[in-house]
Amino acid sequence: MEEILNLDIDENRYSRLELIPWWNQELLHNSTIMVVGAGAIGNELIKNLALLGIGKILIIDMDKIEQTNLTRSILYRMSDVGKYKAEAAAEKAVEINPDVRAIPLKANIVTDIGLGVFRKMDVVLGGLDNREARLSINQFCYKVNKPWIDGAIEVLNGFARVFVPPGPCYECTMTENDWNLINKRKSCALLTHEQILEGKTPTTPTSSSIIAGIQVQEMLKLLHNDRKLPTLAGKGYVFNGLTHDSFVVEYQRKDDCMSHDIYEDIKEMPWSARDISIRDVLNQAKKDLGDSAILEFDRDIVTIATCSCGHSKNIFNVVNKLSNKDIVCEKCGKTMRFETFHSIYGDENFLDKKLFDIGIPLFHIISSRSGLKYIHYELSNDKNEVLGGLFE
Ligand SMILES: [Zn+2]
Ligand SMILES: [Zn+2]
């Protein structure tokens, strides 16, 4: 009897994937993907990215692993309890596939990640459970013209939505109820990080793997964009886990949506947030745009806090980064009032403060404007400190 031997010496880890006609493994190896949130959905996203050989994976999460995570997190073991999610997840990704680089950032996505980081990504994947963080990711991605894919699960149900600038965005999909929930929380008091994260949603490993699977599959199609595959851009996949019905919804782009700002003219500057002052940036803007140039930050910054008892204190930090300690008066215990700014005109008495010292994250992009003309300056010298592990 003749024996048929398969001696194909070209077989490698990716050979079965490469049987897919449109597959480009080299493209995937050269791709950079951000995963925001290393919880139930994030674990499934990262697992898939590692299996597929996505070359550069950035994992953002500021929380530590608790025992309750172990029922929905393939990457974590009992011995990981107490470790940072982002660190443990990055380690496991490389263990699954040594071809990938994965780096963790223990950071708050709303306040700590500079726009330059988003600009380096090919696609951003969201595995989050709150509207405020989704709204922030959405605005960051639009500003630097990057697609992002949101995943959401609750008990057995879930959905995956794909947002590609300049199409419909996450904010375009928000209902009056979504806004009411956000505004209600904002009006109570200034939100601290603890309050933003307090929502706990019941989730299962089964629904997270279904939704994360759809997200990563959509990412693959976006990355292979020269293959003209159909995608869910501007659409949402809705999955009902009780009946296993699913359908696709199409979103409408709202012309009055506040999140469609795309930065056209970005200049990479040899600057770091740690050593460049507000004055330095304003001077550059005046040089480029003329004397009427002003700076416009994409976030509100608190200068001082004052209390009705007469006590006041310097803050100089981004509103969303304030802690309970900043908000409460240490003399009388009342909630303090804040003076904030987001534009700089040149007559402020704190122009010599470094950007980092007013709460601007490393590798951020700072906008300047004169009339309707904009220039955006990237703090490019921070790249290595933030992303060195991925790009060196
Ligand atoms: Zn929109
Ligand atoms: Zn007071």
Describe this structure in words.
The protein has 392 residues and is α/β, with parallel strands linked by helices. The protein folds into two domains: 20-250, NAD(P)-binding Rossmann-like Domain (Rossmann fold, 3-Layer(aba) Sandwich), CATH 3.40.50.720; 266-383, no CATH class. 29% of the residues lie in helices and 23% in strands. The protein has twelve helices and 14 strands. It has helices at residues 25-29, 40-52, 85-96, 115-119, 131-143, 170-173, 176-188, 193-196, 205-223, 278-289, 324-327, 383-391; strands spanning 32-36, 56-60, 101-105, 123-127, 148-154, 157-163, 235-240, 245-250, 266-269, 294-306, 312-318, 337-344, 365-370, 373-379. The strands form two sheets. The chain has an eight-stranded mixed sheet with strand order 3-2-1-4-5-6-7-8, sandwiched between helices. Strands 9, 10, 11, 12, 13 and 14 form a six-stranded mixed sheet that branches. Strand 2, helix 3 (85-96) and strand 3 (101-105) form a beta-alpha-beta unit. It is globular. The model has no long low-confidence stretch (mean pLDDT 93). Bound molecules: zinc ion (2 copies). One zinc ion (ZN) is lined by residues 169, 171-172, 254, 257, 259-260. Residues 169, 171-172, 254, 257, 259-260 line the site of one zinc ion.
